Structure formats: structure tokens, C-alpha cells
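[Discussion] Sanity-checking designs against the backbone

I'm trying to build intuition for which residues belong where. Below is a C-alpha cell string of 546 positions. I'd appreciate it if someone posts a full sequence so I can compare it with mine line by line.
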């Protein structure tokens, strides 16, 4: 026999959104009155839990927080127990914006209040949410889950009915949609119910005009800055992962896009021993990265993520203090190859204020693998103590799932087209975590991916875990080497003299194996920064009111 949660009628209630977990956000979701049901869209395209006549779904006099007066609010009133002791479930698979690769660690939830707008950039210093893990997941989730290494999720205790809102989100990548019908006490598989639509992160921000479950609803991307270089093409990976060309805009110029392009090398030709030509730029052109990206805190703090593509030589005019403060305040950085000069000199000396033991640097090994491709292993143990590394284990499973490994039978390795040998994570490098390491047969050994979290002296939460804010991922390989972007100009040993235009000069198609590894790292970099010692968990849902 089914038991239905208490439902009452609400008139004149003000609701407040609470993001549970390590950070909370008490943003008002507005004041409404009436007795409508169902959900709609607000004028800005966000999911609205107002009825057709402006009423609040369900009822119950409550502030929308857990507990409250003991009466249900909004979609809580559509959560039901089932005769077999189970509940209504929603399942599905979440894909990258291109709809090709399933994604790991994406938060999927049913909101009980209207999700707050997403604002790009780093919150002002001292803001209550500047380092909150979960404050970005607004809308008071009442049912939540994470995707696994296969991209699949299962929501339990979901509300049933028509036009049930769903949020699919990792960091500031956010898809909002409505499920036309959720069957009470049923297993509602979105892979089937929404076909041919694929549940995916958005490739373009704004109110969706695409027919289907997202139509009329706001879609969000993080603000991303890319410093381009003369030796690789990180900016093109975003295009191949499904980000729309319309999102590209010249860095430091006005424009609506979320991918801002700043040419590296001071806007001049890149390289020391050889002229590898100018770094790619947009048309109209963006401003040079050392002039308008890392020149001041105000400029770099406008971005959630900064991608630093190899210039072909040491970074032009790096300001390590500005980068340090940016990450310390919650920024996310992906630094590739010669961008090591943010952290160490070419002779291996630490660059202040970064500590000396981030990695064991040996820049003289830079050309160690220039003769060809290598194979690399996925690190599944913590660098600090050899215990299991949950996200490393997930990375290995995920790469096998997307066909990026040489074998799926537990011994598969990742083929890398152009590796470099500048850094290794050894026993003394306790601040960093290795993710991908050269195969033992490769000499000299090199860590191809490692990360470190900041602040370096974090506060400790009630569970005894460190509260981190920002993250840096360092890559010692050239990601776009197999893609032939710009006709191969960025990887050409003979150099080039022509101006390279992005994104039109980028090739399209499936990601190469090492690009797939970067896709995993990119979305992980977007997510809540949690200690590498623990597996991620979804926002804690507000329990039903019985």
C-alpha cells in the first residue's frame, strides 16, 4: 500500500534556497502566492517551481529548509513511498557537450526551489561562498546522485508527476531540463524516455531554443580563459568536446562568449631555438595573455578556469604571485609543459611563492621522448602513502569505458602522442598527487599529469578533512599533437609564419586517447575540490517531510 506524504495548501509563502553540505547559500527564491501545481520557466530561463497560475507546488507553511514546521513544500509533496519499501527512481547517462563520451562525477538532482543564476569568476575575498564545495549547487536538492565512471546515475526517492525539473551539473557547467512524466514508484530511465535527446552538459550558454526537454531553460558554462601557444592547441579540445564556436571570443574584449582566447608569447612569435610562429588568436583578435590575463588579479579573477597551452618556451612574463593568489582563492588552472616556469626555473629552482617540493623537476630531460609516442600507466594509489586513490581508480575505469586504453583487461595503458620529461612526483613531493605516469619501460621516468590543491595549509572540517579551495593540474605532454590543428602548425618543427585563427583552424572529430584523458581532467578540474583521499559525494538531499 502506498503512503503519500502530507500535502497542504500554501498561500503567501517566501521560500529560501539552501545548498547543503560544506557551504550554504541563503539566497531568496522569491515570494509567490496561489495554489497552482507543476513547474514552469522563469523569465530568465531558469527552472521555476511556480504553477501555471503563479502558485507554489504542493504547499505547507515552511521556509523550505529541512525540518521546518514538518510540512512538505513544493516537490517534497510529490515524493512517495512504495509498497515494496522502495521509491520512485530516475536513471540515465550523462555525456559531454558533444554527446559522445559519458562523464564521471556529474551531480544530478531534482531541485525544490528555483536554482540561482550562475556567476562566472572568483568570488570576492572573504565571501562566505568563496571556497564552498557545494554552494554552487543551488535549488535545495531533494533527490541527488553522482554519475559513475560509466556516466550512469540513479536518483532514488524522486518526486513523481509531470514536468519534473532536473539539474545536471559539475561545477559551473549546468544543464536544466524538465522530465515530461515521472511515473510514481516506477523506474524512469531517461535514456529511453527522452530519446533521441541525450542527457549532456551544454555546449552553449543561454536559454535553450532546441526542441526537447531543455527548451526555454537556462544552460550554463564556466568562464574559461585560454592562453594559446606556439607548440600546442588546448583551445581546440574544447571545440572537439562539444563547446560551440559561438562561445569563443577574443580575450580582454567585449563579447558574450565563455571561452576567452589570449595569445601567448606576448603576442609575438613563440620559441627560443626555433621560430615556431605566432600563437593562435581569434578574429577579431584578443589581447596577449601577459598583458590582459595574468597582469592583474582583477583580470584573472574574472575566470573560473584558466588553461595555459604550451608556448614552445618558458612562459612570457609570468606573474607567479597573481597565479598563486588566484588558485588560493578558488581558481582552477591547467598548466601545460613549458608553463612549468610558473613553479620552477629552467634549472629546477622553485619560483616564489610556490613551494619547492611540488614536484621533482628536471627540465634538462625535456627532449627525452621526442623520438616518438610512449605509453603511460594510470596511477591508482595515493602518492603520499600508497593507499587507494579513488579518482585515479575512476580515471582508469573511465578511460577503459571510452576506449582510450591499449587494453580493457586490467593491463591497459594510455598511448601519448607527444610526451615530455620535465617532472616526476616522488616520495618527498607530498603536496602533489600523480595521475598518469610513464610506463616502467620508459626512461627517464616522468609524471605526465599531476595535481595539487590550495591553500597549502588548509583549515580542517568537522570530519577531519582539509578544506581546499583551488586546484592546479600540470601536464607534461602536448595534448593536440595528434589532431593536426591549424594544419599541424602548432606542432611543426620547422615553424610557421602564418597567423592562426581559432576556432576555425581547429579540426573536428573524436578525441584522441590522450585528449580523452584531458577531458576527464578538465571536468574534474571544474568540480568541487575535495581531498584526493576520499571519493566524491553528491549534495545531501533534504529528506522528505512525512
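Best answer:
Here's mine. Compare freely.
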Amino acid at each position: 500500500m502506498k503512503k503519500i506524504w502530507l500535502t497542504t495548501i500554501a498561500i503567501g509563502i517566501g521560500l529560501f534556497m539552501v545548498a547543503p553540505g560544506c557551504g550554504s547559500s541563503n539566497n531568496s527564491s522569491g515570494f509567490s502566492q496561489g495554489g497552482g501545481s507543476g513547474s514552469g520557466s522563469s523569465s530568465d530561463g531558469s527552472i521555476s517551481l511556480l504553477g501555471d497560475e503563479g502558485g507554489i507546488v504542493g504547499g505547507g507553511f515552511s521556509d523550505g529548509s529541512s525540518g521546518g514546521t514538518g510540512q512538505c513544500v513544493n516537490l517534497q509533496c510529490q515524493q512517495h513511498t512504495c509498497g515494496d519499501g522502495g521509491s520512485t527512481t530516475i536513471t540515465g547517462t550523462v555525456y559531454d557537450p558533444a554527446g559522445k563520451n559519458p562523464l564521471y562525477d556529474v551531480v544530478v538532482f531534482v531541485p525544490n526551489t528555483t536554482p540561482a543564476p550562475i556567476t562566472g569568476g572568483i568570488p570576492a575575498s572573504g565571501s562566505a561562498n568563496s571556497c564552498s564545495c557545494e554552494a554552487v549547487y543551488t535549488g535545495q536538492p531533494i533527490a541527488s546522485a553522482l554519475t559513475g565512471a560509466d556516466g550512469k546515475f540513479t536518483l532514488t526517492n524522486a518526486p513523481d508527476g509531470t514536468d519534473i525539473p532536473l539539474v545536471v551539473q559539475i561545477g559551473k557547467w549546468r544543464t536544466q531540463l524538465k522530465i515530461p512524466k515521472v511515473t510514481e514508484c516506477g523506474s524512469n530511465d531517461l535514456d529511453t524516455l527522452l530519446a533521441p535527446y541525450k542527457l549532456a552538459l551544454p555546449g552553449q550558454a543561454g536559454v535553450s531554443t532546441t526542441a526537447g526537454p531543455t527548451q526555454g531553460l537556462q544552460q550554463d558554462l564556466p568562464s574559461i580563459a585560454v592562453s594559446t601557444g606556439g607548440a600546442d592547441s588546448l583551445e581546440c579540445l574544447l571545440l572537439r568536446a562539444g563547446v560551440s564556436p559561438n562561445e569563443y571570443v577574443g580575450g580582454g574584449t567585449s563579447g558574450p562568449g565563455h571561452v576567452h582566447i589570449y595569445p601567448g608569447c606576448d603576442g609575438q612569435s613563440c620559441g627560443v631555438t626555433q621560430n615556431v610562429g605566432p600563437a593562435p588568436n581569434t578574429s577579431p583578435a584578443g589581447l596577449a595573455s601577459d598583458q590582459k590575463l595574468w597582469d592583474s588579479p582583477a583580470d584573472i579573477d574574472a575566470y573560473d578556469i584558466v588553461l595555459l597551452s604550451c608556448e614552445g618556451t618558458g612562459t612570457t612574463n609570468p606573474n607567479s604571485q597573481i597565479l598563486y593568489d588566484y588558485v588560493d582563492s578558488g581558481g582552477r588552472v591547467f598548466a601545460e609543459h613549458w608553463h612549468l616556469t610558473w613553479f620552477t626555473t629552467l634549472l629546477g629552482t622553485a619560483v616564489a611563492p610556490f613551494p619547492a617540493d611540488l614536484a621533482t623537476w628536471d627540465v634538462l630531460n625535456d627532449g627525452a621522448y621526442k623520438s616518438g609516442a610512449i605509453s603511460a600507466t594510470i596511477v591508482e594509489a595515493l602518492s603520499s602513502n600508497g593507499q587507494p586513490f579513488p579518482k585515479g581508480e575512476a580515471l582508469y575505469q573511465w578511460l577503459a569505458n571510452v576506449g582510450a586504453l591499449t587494453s580493457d583487461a586490467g593491463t591497459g595503458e594510455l598511448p601519448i602522442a607527444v610526451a615530455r620529461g620535465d617532472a616526476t612526483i616522488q616520495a618527498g613531493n607530498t603536496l602533489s598527487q600523480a595521475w598518469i605516469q610513464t610506463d616502467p619501460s620508459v626512461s627517464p621516468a616522468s609524471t605526465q599529469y599531476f595535481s595539487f590543491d590550495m591553500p597549502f595549509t588548509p583549515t580542517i572540517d568537522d570530519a577531519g578533512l582539509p578544506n581546499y579551495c583551488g586546484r592546479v593540474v600540470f601536464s607534461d605532454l602536448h595534448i593536440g599533437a595528434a589532431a593536426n590543428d591549424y594544419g599541424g602548425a602548432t606542432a611543426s618543427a620547422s615553424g610557421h609564419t602564418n597567423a592562426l585563427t581559432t576556432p576555425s583552424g581547429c579540426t573536428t572529430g573524436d578525441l584522441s586517447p590522450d585528449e580523452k584523458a584531458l577531458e576527464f581532467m578538465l571536468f574534474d578540474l571544474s568540480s568541487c575540490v575535495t581531498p584526493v583521499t576520499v571519493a566524491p559525494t553528491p549534495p545531501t538531499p533534504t529528506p522528505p517531510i512525512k
